[in-house]
Structures are given as C-alpha cells and as structure tokens.
Amino acid sequence: MGFRGGMRGMLSSPDEKPKITRRLLKRVLHYALPYRWLIAQMLLLILVYTGTGLLTPMILRDLIDQTLPDKNLNRLIWLAAALLALPVINSVINVIQRRLSAQVGGGVIYDLRLALYTNLQRMSLRFFTNTKSGELMSRLNNDVMGAQNAISSTIVSIITDLIQGLAVLIVMLTLEWRLTLISVAILPLFILATRILGTHLRDLARKQMEANALMNAMMSETLNIGGALLVKLFGRRQLEVERFGQRAAQVRELGVRRVAVGSIFSAITGLISAGGTALIYGLGGYFVIQGAFTIGTIVAFGSYMGNLYRTLQSLANAPVEFATSMVSFERVFEVIDLPVDIPEKPEALALESIQGDLNFEDVSFQYETGDETLLSSVHRYGSIEHVTAALSGATVNAEDEKHTPRSQARRLALDHVSFRAAPGQLVALVGPSGAGKTTLTYLIPRLYDPTSGAISLDGHDLRDLTLESLTAHIGMVTQETYLFHDTIRTNLQYAKLDAAQADLENACRIANIHDFIQALPDGYDTIVGERGYRLSGGEKQRLALARVILKNPRILVLDEATSSLDSESEALIQDALRRVMAQRTSIVIAHRLSTILAADLILVMDRGRIVERGTHSTLLEQDGLYATLYQTQFHRSEGADNA
Predict the structure, then answer these.
(1) pTM of this prediction?
(2) Is the pLDDT at 399 greater than 60, yes or no?
(3) What's the distance, CA 45 to chain centroid?
(4) What structural domains and CATH numbers belong to the chain?
(5) 452-469: per-residue pLDDT in tens?
C-alpha cells in the first residue's frame, strides 16, 4: 500500500468504536513489560490488602457473638486493637501501592511520549504542513495520560477487584451458601446496566478527546506570536474569542454529558446494590429469628456483601474505563504507526566528507493534496485544496513560455529539472514567484523526495545516504528565519553544540552581527523572544547566517531575500553572503543583481521548469524571460549594488 493510501487508512471516524483486539491488548501490555516487577509488587500488596480486608467482618462477628455475650474484657481489648491496627496496615499498604502505581504510570507516560516524539521527528515536512500542531500536542499530553491510566490504574483496578471479589465470594459461601447465591443472582442486572450505558460513556469519551484536540489546535494557531499578530492586525479578536467559545462550549457540553451519564450509571448500580442489600438483610433477619445463624453472622455477611457489591459495581465500570483507555492508546498508536515517507535505507552510506558535486537528473515533483492529511484536516478558504480541480487540467503552452507574468498554477511543482552544480560553484535561481525555486531547494536536504528522477551528491543518490550525514554537509538559510525563544548563544550553538565562545564570535564577525550582539546588555546571553521577534528582520537573517557559518557545511542553500530590509542591513548581509559562499557549492534563490553577476550558472525557472540557463550576459542576449526579469526586477537594484 502506498504512502497516500496508508495515511488514508490511519484516519479514524469520529463515530468509530474502539476495537479491543488481541493485537491491541498485546501491544498495550508490551508497554507494561519493563515494569513487570513493580506490577508484581503491586499485585502482592493487593493480595495482602485483600486478606486484611477480610478480617474486619470476622472480628465484628466474634465481637457480637462471643466477646460481648461472654463479657470477655481481655478479648475485647485485643479485638479493638485489631480493629485499629488493620486500617493502619491498610493505609501503609495503600501508600506503598500508590507510589508503585505512580512509578509505573510515570514510566509508561515517558515511554509513550518518547516513542511519539521520536516518530514525529522522522516525519517529513509534508506531514507538518498537513497537521495541526495543537492536535499533536493533544496526542502527546491528553491521550498519553489517558493511555497510561490503562496500565497504572484501570488494569490494576480490574485485577484488584477480581481478586477481592473472588476472595469475598469464597468467604460468603462458607458463612451462608443460600444468601450467597441470592447475592450473586443480581449480577445480570449489573451487566445489563453496563451494556446500556457503558457504550454511550465510551463514545462520549472519544468525542470529548476529539473536541479537546480541536480546541488545543485553535489555541496553538492563535496564541503563538504569528497568530496573535495576525489577529490584532485584522481586528479579529472578538471573532477568535467567539470561535474559541464555541469549541470550549463543545468540550464543556460533552464533559457535562459524560458526567451526567456516569452519574446515572452509578445511581442505577447503586440502586441495584441497595435492592440486593435489603433483600439479604430481610432474609438474613428471618434466618436469625428462626435460629439458623447468629446476629454476628448476619452482620459479617452484610459487610462482606457490601464489599462484594462495591467490587461488582467497579467491575461493571471496568469495561467502560478500559475501553476509554483503549481509545487513548489507539490515538497514540495512530501517530506511532504513521509511515515515514522520507525513509532511510538500512544500508545507507554515511559520507564523512564531500566535494560538493550536486546533480539533478530529470527531477519532477508534485505536492500531495486532498485527503492525505494524517490526523485532522485544516479547512481554510483559498487553500490549495480549493484550486486542485482547476490545476488538474493545466497544460503548458511552449509558445507562451517567453511571456510574463503568467499564472504559476499547475499540477507539477517541478517538471523534468536537470542541472549540475560543480564543487565550489555558485548557482543562482531566478524566476517569477511560484516558479518552483523554493521547492527545488527543499529537495536538496531531502525535506521532500522527488516524485521521479534522481538527485545525486558526489555521484551518490541522496536516497542512498544517511539523513544525518546528508544534513551535516548542507547548510540552509530560509527566507523566514526561525529562532527559538532562548538566548542568542543557544540559537547559535544549535548548529554546533560544543562551539566555544571564540567560535561563536568568529562566525558572528563573518556574518556582520558580532558588534550588534556585543552592544546588547546581556550580549550573547540575550533572549531573542518568541521566534526571534525581539530582533529586526536583518538581525535575524544575519544570526541565521552566523549559525550556518558555525556549522561549516560544504553545500549552502540560501534564500537571500532582502526586499524587506533597510539599506544598511541589506549591505551587511550582502557582504556576509560573499564571505559565506566562498569555496562552497552554493544554490541561491537570487534577489539581488550582485549575486546574479557573481553566479557561475543562472537557472531561470518558470512553471516548474528550467526555461533558460547560462551567465548574465548570455541570458540577456537571448532576450527571453531572464531579460524581462532583469528589466522589471534586477535592473532597479543595479545602482544599489554598485554603491
């Protein structure tokens, strides 16, 4: 099954009921396996707790039938001491058991989150462009917490109830078998209540998880710095508050319904228990009057019966709680099982050093659109899904390729692209917006794989290399610079974790940013803010360049967009670029004439194709698309470049 079909198979309908299969249970228990000795200790404590719990009714029986009638003061003191000691022992056991349960639960949470995060790190860029980050946060937090309850709480509770129920039942049979059979006769009523309301509770639990995920997704979109800025600039605060209110209200209503149904379930099982208790005390009282057994026996039996009914009620709830936990496990496993669409071959080659010979051979690439989203769809007006139908029939008219501007809408993002960047060469990519320049650069570090054709590095297909060694030799600076909400030092050291202060300063001097950093009150320990929003566009770009310089890659992939920068920042970045690209194979999306003039090869792209190639002078002589772009875009910056 292909990746697209595999992803479609991972989608789950909101109304789909969890299927508790043997395979699922085996997989769940696999996460409990590393903690089997802790679980064994818990089970041992459960046996001890159950045993001590059986003693109290027997003590009451002895107290009523023998000690008080015999006026045995010494025996009374010992029984009273026992009634005090048993709760103390049970409390100590309970504390130890809760600690063990917390260790098991915490371990399961850690294992699940690590497995989730590890698999998410292996996913391609396409996965993250089609998945809400809030949905991922919900899987990592809410669903993991629900899943760990299955092991640390639900399964342990079921085992505890089974052991206690069996032990109590055996003791009750030894006391009075007729009353025991009557007590057990109401068991079908518990099962009936579970069938009627338990399924409804399970469905409400799934819907509540999905509603929480949607609410988390909205918070993630609107409360990050970019989303908050957009909301403020367009004056949509009230709209977003109303949207959030709707989603929060849905979560609230599902929560209320879940509690209401749960309360009805508890009330029904409580009434069943009360009816059984009344029946037993009525018949038991009759047997006492008839002299069949003593008052102490009926008191002890009533106490055991209360324990049995509590256990039965808990076991009646267990299928609902267990199925709810399985829903959480299913949602966690859905992410863990997602197929990796940028796989690494088991025998992949790790290149220690490279020359930087990059070759594109008849490469085509198409973005997947439509139903390939993995976890939840994002509906936005104007998104690519809304124009797919218009693009599917698009064809390229060769006669029209020399004219511009033209719509860049098309089916293939890249269409049979071939070129070679020799070691140390500077290759400049130019063309209209949407021509495929950025897509081409994304294929070099394998953020995506070609739909057809091949890309090779020093004669090795990129798909035959380890991802780690490939990215180690490639440095990329995108037009939108991303910085962590941390210090300048931490953001720089992301390229080289063991970089010394001297290394940082040297890289920043080359990138023309060192003097600016030194002038800050905290220097290299200055916090840059969410996504670096405390810095200007030029400062962020120069920090990004310094980070790449620190990495010292053999291949540079740059989007040298400077249109939004002031002239001083632009000049500093241009000077830094000349230093960075020296002696390296560089693929640059060029926006400045100075870069184009320095290029060994200029590739002119239009509608995903390379329509022209050559040097500045030869391309001008062809009087094609490049000549038009030169007159409309690059020629205007010629004076600034020469200044």
Answers:
(1) 0.68
(2) no
(3) 36
(4) 21-336 (1.20.1560.10), 365-374+405-473+555-643 (3.40.50.300), 480-552 (3.40.50.300)
(5) 999 999 999 999 999 888
